[in-house]
Amino acid sequence: MASQCLGSKCLTATLTLALAAALSASTALSLYLWRRKWRGLESQIRELEKSLKSSLEKCSAERQGRIRAQQELRKALALPKSDSLFSYPMAPIGIIQSCFSTRNGTPRQPLLVPLARAGLIFDSSRVPPASLEGLGEYSHCWIIYVFHLNTNLDKLWKEPSRSKFKAKVRVPRLKGGRMGVFATRSPHRPCPIGLTVARVEAVKGSMVLLSGVDLVDGTPVLDVKPYLPYCDAIEGAAVPKWVKEDSLLEVASVSFSEGFPSTLADCWVRAEKKSLYASPEEFQSLIKQVLSWDIRSLSQRNRPHDYSIEKRNGKALVKNTSDSLTQEKNTCDSDGCQDEEASIPISGQVSLSSGDNIIYHLNLEGLDVSYRIDCKGNVIVEKIAMSSDISNSH
């Protein structure tokens, strides 16, 4: 009996100890879990405090920025009004290295000549190569640039009130008909800024290789933006009827003289190193694409045979003999009208052969291409020579 009582007490003590141990372990586990949860909460609280502090600092900076802007605006409004008050000086971020050496022959619109190539070379001091990362994943890009060859740029920027920009321009598709400058893409604008689209062929360091360009060599570039089809291509966009006359400036055919390939091969030996093209055959294809459109000026197309040779100081000069053309131009200028096409000296585009046939000139990558165009719109490319050789001979 005594032994049974002793065993019962031992069992009770054992159970008590086990229960105490279990409670102690449970308490320890609960304490551990609570501390762990508390540490997590502390971390979240610190993150929230950091985020709140950052937001407060940002709001404070924005508030200070608004205050400074308001102060600057008040100061500006207190100053006498001047032309420079609302000017925004911008410096180019890059330069175009194009196959088009001069304005003559440069396409009037982008993508008309798929083989027209150019390299956009960025100023590495302003545009680090990292800023071009990702551009190569787009097929096309927008390019904002300056019409730097306009003859009135100095007057336009230095004395804008006296620049007298023309409200209307003569449009090639309207055969000289006039249209408001903002209804056209004329380079002669109050702010001579151009917008074009080009195909992105490759991005190499600080240079972007482009194709389908309508940019002349040396064009200053202000900005580049990716082309986004979902918002840039507007389905069902309406344009005037005269814009749809695509065939108006197309030529009937383009052919080359029998000796042209051999002449091109001779020139290619000197031009190959600096060329954007891999072979003379590819360069000849470029010439054909460019001349598939009538690149002559409006006055040349309207009066292609009103030229004579005038000798001055022993040199033969090409002269326009149409008095009516001069009268028309003067009348147009007095009415505030200007030719949409860039004004290019005739002597740089036209010469006369011994048979009084008009020979036109196209300059691509420093190579002078001579061609004729008959009354039916057939282009015959006569020959090609280095522009430097022609200048030296003259």
From TrEMBL:
Residues 90-236 form the TsaA-like domain. InterPro entries: TrmO-like_N, YaeB-like, YaeB-like_sf, YaeB_N_sf. Keywords: S-adenosyl-L-methionine. CDD domains: UPF0066. It comes from the Eukaryota. It holds the Pfam family TrmO_N. The keyword S-adenosyl-L-methionine applies. Gene3D superfamilies: YaeB-like. Transmembrane segments: none annotated. NCBIfam families: tRNA_TsaA. Belongs to the tRNA methyltransferase O family. This is Nef-associated protein 1. It comes from Morella rubra. The lineage of its organism: Eukaryota, Viridiplantae, Streptophyta, Embryophyta, Tracheophyta.
